[in-house]
């Protein structure tokens, strides 16, 4: 793998992890959102990534349909249904913070790999200058 290819792969990894952090931030911001009884509740969004020759690709952003939405009995709430229940998102802020930490660490790892490749490229240029 060439140095420029290593930098391109690390750059795509940083882009993908930054995108993932943006989606996680949106999830956290909507963690306590309630919906009207006639509307479908908001679902946690997840990012699907795939490795490719040129680096990491963002495939899609998909809703988490496997985790049930949270229903709370709040008869005085304006979005309560006829039985007094309110539908909230299926977003758990604790899980989102763990995902955010994971994405942040992955971003830092890609940044370190990028900086290492850049340092190697600069060292190779300096060898050519001193010869």
Question: Describe it for me?
Answer:
With 131 residues, this protein is of the alpha+beta class. It has one domain (3-130). It has two helices and five strands; from the N terminus they run αβββββα. The chain has helices spanning 3-29, 93-130, and strands spanning 34-35, 45-52, 55-63, 70-73, 85-88. The strands form two sheets. A three-stranded antiparallel beta sheet has the order 1-5-4, with no helix packed on it. β2 (45-52) and β3 form a beta hairpin. The longest helix has 38 residues, at 93-130. The chain is rod-shaped and about 80 Å long. The model has no long low-confidence stretch (mean pLDDT 92).
Please give a handful of descriptors for the protein shown.
21% strand, 5 strands, 131 residues, three-stranded antiparallel sheet, alpha+beta, two-stranded antiparallel sheet
Separation of termini? 25 Å
Strand content: 15-25%
Helix/strand/pairing class, anyone? alpha+beta
The order of strands across the largest sheet is: 1-5-4
User: Cα-atom Rg, whole angstroms?
Assistant: 22 Å
Which segments are poorly predicted (pLDDT under 50) over 5 or more consecutive residues? Answer: none
**Quantity of strands, as a count:** 5
Major beta sheet, specifics? 3 strands, antiparallel
Q: Give the integer mean of the pLDDT values.
A: 92
Shape, principal axes of CA atoms: rod-shaped
* Number of self-contained structural domains: 1
Which sequence of SSEs, written as H and E, runs from N to C? HEEEEEH
Helical run tally: 2
Helix content: 40-55%
């Amino acid at each position: 793998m060439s140095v420029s290819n290593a930098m391109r792969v690390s750059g795509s990894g940083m882009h993908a992890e930054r995108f993932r952090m943006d989606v996680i931030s949106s999830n956290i911001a909507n963690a306590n959102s309630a919906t009207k009884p006639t509307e479908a509740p908001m679902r946690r969004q997840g990012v699907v990534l795939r490795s490719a020759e040129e680096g990491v690709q963002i495939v899609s952003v998909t809703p988490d349909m496997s985790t049930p939405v949270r229903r709370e009995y709040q008869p005085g709430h304006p979005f309560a249904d006829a039985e007094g229940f309110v539908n909230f998102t299926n977003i758990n802020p604790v899980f989102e913070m763990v995902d955010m930490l994971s994405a942040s660490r992955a971003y830092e790892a890609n940044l370190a790999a990028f900086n290492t490749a850049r340092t190697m490229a600069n060292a190779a240029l300096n060898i050519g200058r001193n010869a």
